[in-house]
Amino acid sequence: MERLVLEGLVTTIGADGQVNVAPMGPLVDRQFRSVVLRPFQTSRTFENLRRGSPVIVHVTDNVELLAAAAIGAATDAFIGPTTLCPLTGGVILQNACRWYALQVTEFDAAAERATIACDVVAAGRNRDFFGLNRSLHAVVEAAILATRVDFLPISEIEADLQRLQPLVQKTGGAAEQRAFQQICDFVAAAQTKPGD
After folding, report:
1. Cα 158 to chain centroid, rounded
2. How far, in Å, CA of 23 to CA of 10, rounded?
3. Which fold has domain 134-191?
4. Which of 25, 35, 114, 195 could form a disulfide with 5 if both were Cys (CB 3.0 to 4.6 A apart)?
5. Quick one: CATH architecture of 3-125?
6. Handedness of CA 196, 160, 188, 71 (dihedral sign)
7. Does the fold of domain 134-191 match that of domain 3-125?
8. Whether residue 195 has pLDDT greater than 90
9. pLDDT tens string 161-186
10. Which tens digits make up the pLDDT trace of 88-99?
């Protein structure tokens, strides 16, 4: 079965009841029947899933939420309204386009990045996906770069951000520009951390 990496958002619930929103690129089949999550074992998502938290994968074009989740700033204001999946109790982001509630079928923590196979047990649609746009994709790429500040050279990340910036300026709107700037500020702050 062919699987693709689909960049999106994953919600889980912590032991304290707090909703965790994390950007993730799970492997999905084109029919969305099954999903393979690959969280790092150091992540909150992994910890929540290890404890048995319900999990929902979201497809979204909300780049401000993607950017905020990537840099750990996904506050309630960014998350917006949520509901619970009646079947699993997972948290559904109403600002996402589509959602998929998952049931874990295999949990392999043998590697640094766990492999968690899941079946889709419920799905829903909140709104239409905006469509393909170069600035949306540029912000997604920038958000992925932001998640790598701890193990990639900052100079390399900044060079990639400079390459992406014209796409955001030429084809994006205010939301894309705000999201991109938030990521650039985060990367700049990471460069000036004490001890770096």
Report:
1. 21
2. 6
3. Methane Monooxygenase Hydroxylase; Chain G, domain 1 (1.20.58)
4. 25
5. Roll (2.30)
6. negative
7. no
8. no
9. 999 999 999 999 999 999 999 999 99
10. 999 999 999 999
Of 164, 174, 183, nearest in space to 69 by CA: 183
Please report, as a single letter, which amino acid is at residue 41.
Q
Domain ranges of the chain: 3-125, 134-191
Q: Per-residue pLDDT for 196 more than 50?
A: no
Write down the pTM of the prediction: 0.88
CB 139: neighbour CB atoms within 10 A? Answer: 29
Rama region for 115: left / alpha / beta (φ>0; ψ in -120 to 50; rest): beta
What pLDDT shows up at residue 192?
A: 72
* Contact in structure between 146 and 112 (CB atoms under 8 Å): no
What's the mean per-residue pLDDT of the chain? 94
Name residue 119's beta-bridge partners. 34, 103
Residue 115 has which token pair? 């492999």
3 and 117 Cβ atoms separated by less than 8 Å: no
Residue 21 three-state SS:
strand
Can you point out the beta strands (E) in 53-189?
A: 55-59, 82-84, 91-93, 98-108, 115-125
**Residue 175 CA neighbour count, 13 Å, CB half:** 12
SS3 60: coil
